[in-house]
Amino acid sequence: MAELGVPLSGSRLVQQGAEARLYRGRFLGRAVVAKLRFPKRYRHPALEERLSRRRTAQEARSLLRCRRAGISAPVVYFVDYVSNCIYLEDIVGSMTVRDYIISIQQREKDASGLFTLAEKIGEVLARMHDEDLIHGDLTTSNILLRPPAEKLDLVLIDFGLSFISGLPEDKGVDLYVLEKAFLSTHPNTETLFEALLKKYTAMSKKSSPVIKKLDEVRLRGRKRSMVG
Amino acid sequence: RAPPPRTRFLPGHTARHHRACLLELLAEALREAGLRPCDVDCVAFTKGPGMGAPLAVVAAVARTVAQLWDKPLLGVNHCVGHIEMGRLVTGARDPIVLYVSGGNTQVIAYSQRRYRIFGETIDIAVGNCLDRFARVLKISNDPSPGYNIEQMAKKGQKLVELPYTVKGMDVSFSGILSHIEEVSHKMLASGECTPEDLCFSLQETVFAMLVEITERAMAHCGSQEVLIVGGVGCNLRLQEMMGIMCAERGAKLFATDERFCIDNGAMIAQAGWEMFRSGQVTALEDSWITQRYGMKVACEVLSAKAGKYQCCLLHAALVRPHQGSGV
């Protein structure tokens, strides 16, 4: 695929995250995002290879699993296991839930419109967890809204840390990660997150042990001995 | 004196040690500085977190001395002490802070007028993981288990595959610890690897996890500075790995040596001084100690008139006080 380091010829670098570089371009006549996991030199080479390959594979597998289950996620067009690069459907004109929440909060004094959004997120996560799929890195930057944003058509992305598990502990931790990310990125949204959890509890068939585990993980932070 | 291998510091012993040495240490410090009690501006002590008994001993002395000399009292958060000393010694302005010690593993950043925890361990601290690993392998506690693991790791060559657990911005160490507890004896007995290999593998894995969550916080906050504080921050391999990550991002790494990484009194004084000069004081009835003193500190930044530096008004909110009044 042409130039060294750049996945698609003619594509342009859109973002350099902590984990990977994103390029926008065209592939077989479609708009794509190429997600390239570049080697981290601080890691031991054997560890680096293991992690990058595992995360690329996990991400591709989880995205496929979502689509098979009818959960909205980008289409996977191609996976290059040599360079650890995934070619995904580009959701053109999308907006992250993070930016959407911030813009609504800035515009309107009354953020009650966000409650529907919170419930929709709870619903999607319930379906995902009922498939025993753990996202592993839930944040409001990892959920997109297809245009127009007001339709609240959600798309889950960034499955690099995902894995399959039926354990309530893993699902509880998944929600905990989202809770922390949610509340630290969007201050004073505790009631919003509560609405999310309420909908999750209602929609998921296996929710009550998960919520119990979530409460346990929340408490664990407080009970930890801080000696040393 | 370090505890023998396979043991650790106990609160009772530590408290007795402090009680025996503290007054002499105080007198010596004043002598060395050439100061008399009346020259001192304020008395800062560790409010928490930490072991209850030793904290109580020191707090009692601090309260007494403050009243005897008629000086203001300042109860300081131990974690904030690390951060303030790190900033002072290194000159870092607005860093992402990786605070790693036996009891803490947190990635802290200053955002929206507060110190916030962006990532942390969801179970045990990395230092705790290393200490317990040392106990499994019967590694000496003198001078410290972490130091000995570091020296042994330098001689390790084989990378043993160990569980690597990052969950979003957080890390988990109990999995890797229990894995090692299960397999190490078998692996050593069969000659599959040496203790040095295990030390090497453990460091490479847990440190990579810490660098990863630090990088995530940097990407999230758009920060170009990293400061490592806490006892585990003395580890040169951790500093090296973090340095490589920073170089790749065009960011700068700030690290201190063992005089300031490890718990020390000067850092409490430094944080206390920052508090004092922004007008905060701890009333006697609020000077109790707590074993669990969370990092949810609210911080208002005021610019000094000179405009050259910012001083922090640290008003720490408590997560869950362990001991109430009367301590």
CATH homologous superfamily identity of the domain at 11-78 and 264-297 in chain B: ATPase, nucleotide binding domain
For the terminal residues of chain A, how far apart are their CA atoms? 51 Å
Provide the gyration radius of chain B in Å.
Answer: 21 Å
Report strand % of chain A.
Answer: 15-25%
**Topology, number of strands of chain A:** 10
Biggest interface reads: A-B, 35 and 49 residues
Q: What percent of residues of chain B are in strands?
A: 15-25%
Reported for the largest beta sheet of chain A, the result is: 5 strands, antiparallel
| CATH architecture label name of the largest domain in chain A | Orthogonal Bundle
Structural class of chain B: alpha/beta
Helical content of chain B stands at 40-55%
- The total count of helices of chain A amounts to 6
Number of strands of chain B: 11
- Listing every helix as H and every strand as E from the N terminus to the C terminus, the arrangement of chain B reads HEHEHEEEHHEEHHEHEHHEE
- What would CATH call the class of the domain at 11-78 and 264-297 in chain B? Alpha Beta
Return the average pLDDT of chain A rounded to an integer.
90
Main sheet summary of chain B? 5 strands, mixed
Would you kindly provide a written description of the structure presented here, covering whatever features stand out?
Chain A: Belongs to the protein kinase superfamily. BUD32 family. Chain A: Its EC number is 2.7.11.1. Chain A: Pfam families: Kdo. The complex is a heterodimer of chains A (228) and B (327). Chain A is of the alpha+beta class and 228 residues long. Chain A folds into two domains: 12-89, 2-Layer Sandwich (Phosphorylase Kinase, domain 1), CATH 3.30.200; 95-221, Transferase(Phosphotransferase), domain 1 (Orthogonal Bundle). Chain A is built from six helices and ten strands. A five-stranded antiparallel beta sheet of chain A has the order 1-2-3-5-4, covered by helices on one side. In chain A, helix 3 packs across helix 5 (190-203) and helix 4 packs across helix 6 (207-223). In chain A, 40% of the residues are buried. Chain B has a domain at 11-78 and 264-297: ATPase, nucleotide binding domain (Nucleotidyltransferase, domain 5, 2-Layer Sandwich), CATH 3.30.420.40. Chain B has helices at 11-33, 52-69, 78-90, 126-136, 145-154, 174-190, 195-221, 236-249, 258-261, 265-277, and strands at residues 43-48, 73-77, 96-100, 105-111, 114-120, 166-167, 170-171, 225-229, 252-255, 297-303, 310-316. Chain B is 46% helix and 17% strand. With 327 residues, chain B is of the alpha/beta class. In chain B, helix 3 packs across helix 10, helix 4 (126-136) runs parallel beside helix 6 and helix 5 crosses helix 7 (195-221). Chain B is globular. In chain B, the strands form four sheets. Chain B has a five-stranded mixed beta sheet, sandwiched between helices. The interface between A and B is large, with 35 and 49 residues.
